[in-house]
Amino acid sequence: MAKDERVQVSWPTIGFESRPWTSGGDVVASRRALRAARGDYRAAVPPMIARVPVILSPDALAAADDASRELTRFDGEAGLVTAPFASILLRTESASSSEVENLTSSAKQVALAEIGESRSGNARLVLANVRAMKAALILSDRIDESAIIEMHEALLSDSAPHIIGRWRDEQVWIGGGSVSPHSATFVPPHHDRVQELMTDLVGFAERADVPVLALAAITHAQFETIHPFPDGNGRTGRALLQAMLRSGGVTRNATVPVSAGLLHDLDGYFRSLDAYRAGNPDAIVMAVAEAAFAAINNGRRLVADIRSASERWNGVVVARSDSSVHKLKEYLIGQPVVNVKTVAAALAVSEIAAAGSITRLEETGILTRTSGDARNRLWQATEILDALDAFAARARRARA
Could you tell me the mean pLDDT of each successive run of 10 residues in the chain, 400 residues long? Predict the structure, then answer.
């Protein structure tokens, strides 16, 4: 038997079962669609994996080891740049994870949403994903069922509060339209199986006999297969991936934007999930490892751009070392769109002092007034916004 066949046989494949389907009486669709929605449908039956031996190919193990080492190295580099840089990486990971779900927003709109000034619905959803990522990192010391539900709550508490706080109690499906699951691309397990599967998933995530990145990748793939929530599974699943990297000690200082790496090859990412369900865990481990390499390369360019801007700012600003102007420069790296109120609150100074610091940086060209009336003017650090948008553009270019 060939080596790759032996690896595939070692991991259980998903099964399927027939389930009866009853369409709601208020469904509006064509006669053809309604006819297609009659009768039983097939839902996935994922295997229990908590105690299944994890046997990966030498190539997958080597890729996971190399990626883990590079993630830890980059995490250390990011920790030395500047304190607000961690928030930049968190935001880029959240934006990239949202973009996997076709939720796109510019860096400026996300920064505006952070201070309650954006009218973009997508920007507010990205900001919700930032909250989910933060929750994931906070909860990384206890990855259990309640922690996963809390990550999901942080993501959807504003936009879909009616579905948070519990596992789903309805059938969901991917692709094939909204009428029924009969023509779906993939139908996750029936909701009466979700509780048992999630208990098993948490048991798998706690294992110490699997390399951290491989453990995180397989947990992510199983989570996406279970699809335990009515919505937000992709973003919650990638937050869970970050939590496991933090829990396993691969990262400590920053959220390496692995989702930006996944954007390099979305089709490959989705194929790796299909391969995992067919019994090949190598595929998702390799996909996450390659995403990590891509994210690090892109992230290092972002670090260089931010560092270049920061050095230029230091060369044009002359002020006492304890001046709030210097504090504002550092704050702008993590929050590149500001108004007087947000600066005053962030720096713990009066609004008069905040306005004075803003004026100093506006005079040097670091800040540019963008919009807002006389009572609520807005300023932006264009160099930081450009660096963030360039990061996102590189991820998209690689995918095209």
Answer: 47 97 72 78 98 97 98 86 76 92 93 92 93 93 95 95 97 91 96 98 97 98 98 96 96 90 92 97 98 94 92 89 88 95 96 95 96 81 96 75
Distance of CA 320 to the CA centre of its chain: 39
Query: Could you say which of 152, 182, 220, 227 is catalytic?
Result: 227
Q: What is the total count of domains within the chain? A: 2
* Residue 334 is assigned to a ligand binding site: no
This prediction has a pTM of 0.91
Residues 342 and 233 reside in one and the same domain: no
Query: Is residue 299 part of an annotated ligand binding site?
Result: no
Q: Looking at residue 337, which CATH number applies to its domain?
A: 1.10.10.10
Q: Are residues 236 and 354 in the same domain?
A: no
Q: Are residues 261 and 293 part of one domain?
A: yes
Q: In this structure, what DSSP letter does residue 129 have?
A: H
394 in any annotated domain: no
Tell me which residue range forms the domain holding 154: 3-300
Q: Is 24 marked as a binding-site residue?
A: no
Residues 159 and 249 in one domain: yes
231 is annotated as contributing to ligand binding: yes
Nearest in space to 386 (alpha carbons), one of 394, 397, 376? 394
Residue 4, pLDDT score: 45
Rg of the chain over all Cα atoms, to the nearest angstrom: 23
What's the pLDDT score for residue 379?
A: 97
Q: What is the per-residue pLDDT for 398?
A: 56
Asked whether residue 346 falls in the same domain as residue 269, the answer is no
Claim to verify: residue 233 and residue 376 sit in the same structural domain: no
Q: Is residue 116 situated within a structural domain? A: yes
Residue 372 annotated as lining a ligand binding site: no
Q: Is 182 a known active-site residue?
A: no
Q: Quick one: 327 and 185 in the same domain?
A: no
